[in-house]
Amino acid sequence: MSELKELKTAEYQDLVNQGGVTVIDFWAPWCGYCVRMMPIIEEIAGELEGKANFVKVNADEEPELARNMQVEVLPTFVILKDGEVVDRKIGFLPKGDLQGAIESKF
């Protein structure tokens, strides 16, 4: 498993400028599905290390970024490729479904 870096609004543009595939996990500590998804997304991040970037955003602490990314439900996984949103997955997902969605963007 890989501990995900907490992304702050001010760091978003630098992340986008890196290019490649990036997965942003929008979550909150009070969200049960978010907490249940955390070990799954960390496991996927470990397996795809070097192929995709993974970060998490606490939507309570970074509401501006959540609004800008049109996040209305938690958890939301926003998948970017070269800075553009190419997919988003919402809610609790089986590991294979989320990992497949990410790998299809390589």
From TrEMBL:
<feature type="active site" description="Nucleophile">
    <location>
        <position position="31"/>
    </location>
</feature>
<dbReference type="Pfam" id="PF00085">
    <property type="entry name" value="Thioredoxin"/>
</dbReference>
<feature type="site" description="Contributes to redox potential value">
    <location>
        <position position="32"/>
    </location>
</feature>
<dbReference type="InterPro" id="IPR036249">
    <property type="entry name" value="Thioredoxin-like_sf"/>
</dbReference>
<comment type="similarity">
    <text>Belongs to the thioredoxin family.</text>
</comment>
<dbReference type="InterPro" id="IPR005746">
    <property type="entry name" value="Thioredoxin"/>
</dbReference>
<feature type="active site" description="Nucleophile">
    <location>
        <position position="34"/>
    </location>
</feature>
<feature type="site" description="Contributes to redox potential value">
    <location>
        <position position="33"/>
    </location>
</feature>
<keyword id="KW-0813">Transport</keyword>
<feature type="site" description="Deprotonates C-terminal active site Cys">
    <location>
        <position position="25"/>
    </location>
</feature>
<dbReference type="InterPro" id="IPR017937">
    <property type="entry name" value="Thioredoxin_CS"/>
</dbReference>
<feature type="disulfide bond" description="Redox-active">
    <location>
        <begin position="31"/>
        <end position="34"/>
    </location>
</feature>
<dbReference type="InterPro" id="IPR013766">
    <property type="entry name" value="Thioredoxin_domain"/>
</dbReference>
<dbReference type="GO" id="GO:0005829">
    <property type="term" value="C:cytosol"/>
</dbReference>
<dbReference type="GO" id="GO:0015035">
    <property type="term" value="F:protein-disulfide reductase activity"/>
</dbReference>
<keyword id="KW-0249">Electron transport</keyword>
<keyword id="KW-1015">Disulfide bond</keyword>
<protein>
    <recommendedName>
        <fullName>Thioredoxin</fullName>
    </recommendedName>
</protein>
<keyword id="KW-0676">Redox-active center</keyword>
<dbReference type="GO" id="GO:0045454">
    <property type="term" value="P:cell redox homeostasis"/>
</dbReference>
<feature type="domain" description="Thioredoxin">
    <location>
        <begin position="1"/>
        <end position="106"/>
    </location>
</feature>
